[in-house]
Design a protein that fits this description.
The protein is mainly beta. The protein has 2 helices and 6 strands. The radius of gyration is 35 Å and the shape is rod-shaped. It starts with 5 loop residues before the first helix and ends with a helix.
Length: 189
């Protein structure tokens, strides 16, 4: 059985991280919020037209045809975005260095995968020994020069939205009609 240090064997002393290699549990309590607004106005217009006639010695009448289309598309959008991010949980970090004043430089990361989603969290910063509680825990907002990163990779991709589908369909139909009219006109000549 390994020898216990004086702090570990004492009934009156808390076991707290103080030296290189010791582990501290960080209680994550991070919250940020922000808001933004934007206004967008868009207006497009397309006009098209054609007419033609088919001359024929075989028919007792002369058929004429024509096509005309006007498409106006307008959009007035106002976007208001409020964003709030909250990160709560726990991560264990290891003491990498002890400064001359006794502060602890800590660093740690955690990688989990759930249903194809990979969650990666990393944390580094400086912890004052006085901020470590009797359960060997420190609150994340008590870490100086904290660099906290949380990323999610994989999982379900958000659906993208194709704007202007109706506009594209109408302009496509107008183009097709105009093309047919020109073709019939050329066949008649």
């Amino acid at each position: 059985m390994p020898a216990l240090t004086a702090a570990q064997s004492s009934l009156y002393t808390d076991v707290k991280a103080k030296q290189i290699g010791d582990v501290i549990t960080v209680i994550l309590r991070e919250s940020t919020s922000g808001s933004s607004t934007s206004d967008t106005q868009l207006s497009t217009s397309a006009n098209g037209g054609t007419e033609g006639a088919v001359a024929s010695n075989f028919l007792p009448f002369e058929p004429t045809f024509g096509a005309e289309a006007n498409v106006n598309y307008g959009s007035d959008q106002r976007n208001l975005a409020n964003q709030r991010q909250l990160l709560e949980g726990f991560i264990s970090v290891q003491v990498k260095e002890v400064t001359p004043s006794g502060d602890l430089l800590v660093e740690g990361n955690r990688l989990t995968e759930v249903n194809g989603e990979v969650h990666e969290m990393s944390l580094s910063g400086i912890v004052r020994q006085n901020d470590v509680n009797s359960q060997n825990q420190v609150l994340s907002y008590r870490i100086a020069n904290a660099n906290i990163s949380y990323q999610k990779k994989g999982g379900i991709n958000p659906k993208t939205k194709d704007r202007g589908l109706l506009k594209k369909a109408v302009l496509g139909a107008v183009s097709l009609g105009m093309g047919a009219a020109i073709l019939l006109r050329q066949l008649g000549n």
